[in-house]
Amino acid sequence: MDESDAGAVARRALPLLDLTDLTETCTEPKIEVLCRDARSGGVAAICVWPHFVAQGARALKGSGIRVATVINFPAGGEDCARATDDTAEALRDGADEIDLVLPYRAFLRGDADTARDMVEAVRDTCGAACLKVILETGEIADPEAIRRASRLALEAGDDFLKTSTGKSPVSATPDAAEAMLAEIRTSGRAAGLKVSGGLRSVADATAYLALADRIMGPDWAGPRTFRLGASSLFGALMQARES
Questions:
Q1: Mean pLDDT of successive 10-residue segments in the chain (243 residues)?
Q2: Which end of the chain is more exposed for a tag (fewer CB within 10 A), N or C?
Q3: pTM
Q4: Which of 53, 90, 33, 5 lies closest to 235, judged by CA?
């Protein structure tokens, strides 16, 4: 990839980025830096722990950059009441988007109802807010099972499918993203895909954008339909954009 190609990818990818800090060592000063970087990069959103939502919302007010947070994260537990309560609190604090971990272990043992019930309950709680459902595809692994989980989330009313928490041994893979995009296309719904976990280079962004273009068409990927969830990718994209 020459510099001009990398620059073009960076200019396309930055407005699709969910700039993320879900580290255990995150602090208020780090959120300040994250929000400053988000403004300089013109990203789609930041994604932070729930207790940083209010700070992020204040810092990004009027910018058009959205604030996303994580629920039922990263374990993908089965406490539906806790998930809806946490969602309601995050929305009160100013979250625009909720990234919910599917109860994937329940799904894998054949208990699709528990998984579906949580997505539907959080969907109801979200109202007009954007709901992304994290499948944790590295744990589900099998492409057909990923497609079934995708169908479940889409039928339960999510706005985005999301690959991964970034906390499992295997995060996003092209095979998983392809299965999820195929299910979005088959569903006919106006739903999107967020690729998250392990994205670090301009080449990674290039590969997933090319995949979306191939399956969904070259005009499909935009902030309302396609996101790249990452932290370290930001620096590579900014360097490429400015080179």
A1: 81 98 98 98 98 98 98 98 98 98 98 98 98 98 97 98 97 97 97 97 97 97 98 96 89
A2: C
A3: 0.97
A4: 33
